[in-house]
Amino acid sequence: MELQQARDDCQRHKCKVHQKVEQLQHQRQQQLAPSRLYLPPPWQPAVFKQPTPQFMVLAAEGCSFVALHDSRLQFTPQRWTYGPADCRGAWPPLWACMRTYTTAAQAMAAASSQRGSSNAKGARVLARVLVKGRGYTHADSGCVAVPSLLFNAVLEYVPQTPKERLMAVDYGCGGLQAGAAV
User: Fold this and answer.
1) In this structure, are 60 and 123 located in the same domain?
2) 17: containing domain
3) Are residues 24 and 51 in the same domain?
4) 105-122 average pLDDT score
5) Using CA atoms, how far apart are residues 127 and 107, in angstroms rounded to an integer?
6) Residue 13's pLDDT is what?
7) pLDDT at 19 over 60
8) How many domains does the chain divide into?
9) Alpha helices of the chain — where are they, by DSSP H?
10) Which carries the bigger pLDDT value, residue 118 or residue 88?
11) Are 8 and 95 found together in one domain?
């Protein structure tokens, strides 16, 4: 009788543990799941169907890129390249809801004042500001070991002039690369 009671107690304990594990897994999935947008399978670039006021956001998985793209411009997927093959899959899937932050304009202004009017250099500085602002340090070479949640920090920047328009920021394995100036 005592043995059976012990078995029952053990089974109940296992059930509770199992339920807790399932609960935690479900919470984790909810945290990582896109809340507004659907993104396609890995390595398939896609322009979001719901752009921010000034930009459409482009994203891809692994050692790839996150881009801020002016919705008034034509987008050509062939213009973008992925990181080295040995870096692919280094991060968890990046399919998370892209959120905008109000500090974007301030960060861009700081980047412009530090690096002049060069769009490419300004974009590089802006990206550095974003990464450091989230508590990460950017490496100029090799894979950047950051969690996928970093890619939630996609900024919204309202351009004042065509020269200030940030076309793209490439967060790749070889370091930050900026898109061509508009």
Assistant:
1) yes
2) 1-32
3) no
4) 42
5) 9
6) 60
7) yes
8) 2
9) 2-32, 104-115, 119-133
10) 118
11) no
Bridge partners for 159 per DSSP: none
Q: Is the pLDDT of residue 147 over 50?
A: no
Q: Which two tokens stand for residue 154?
A: 């996609």
DSSP-assigned beta bridge partners for residue 161: none
User: Whose CA is closest to 58, among 132, 160, 165, 70?
Assistant: 70
Based on the domain organization, do 17 and 93 belong to the same domain?
Answer: no
List the structure tokens of 131: 């990464």
Mean pLDDT of 83-96: 28
Specify the residue for token string 């490439």.
170
Say whether both 120 and 59 belong to one domain. Answer: yes
Q: Per the confidence metrics, is the pTM higher than 0.85?
A: no
Do 21 and 52 belong to one domain?
A: no
d(CA 111, CA 113): 5
Whether residue 86 has pLDDT greater than 50? no
Could you write out the DSSP letters of every residue in 45-91? Answer: -EE-SS--SSEEEEE-SSS--EEEEETTS---GGG-----GGGTTSS
pLDDT digits (tens, 9 = 90+) for 63-75: 233 333 333 222 2
How far, in Å, are 8, 118, 177 from residue 121 at the CA level? 66, 5, 9
At residue 174, what is the residue type? G
